[in-house]
Amino acid sequence: MTSPRSTGRGKALLILPFSGPFGPWFPLYLHSLANQHTLDLLLLSDTVPPELPSNVRHVPMTFDDIRERANARLKTPVRLHRGRNICDLRPAFGLVFEEFTQGYEYWAFGDEDVLYGDLDRMLAPHLDGTADLVFPALNGKSGHLTIVKNHPRTNELAMNDPVYKDVLNSQEHWAYDETSWRWGKELSSFFQIVKDAQARGELSIGGGIPRITNVPQRGRWYEYDGRRLHEDTGREILYYHWGKMRHRNLAWPDRNAARNGFAFDRYGFYDPKLGHARLATRRSVGRLRELASGARQRLSNGRAALRSAMPRP
Question: How far apart, in Å, are the Cα atoms of 195 and each of 33, 110, 134, 279?
Answer without folding.
Answer: 29, 19, 12, 45
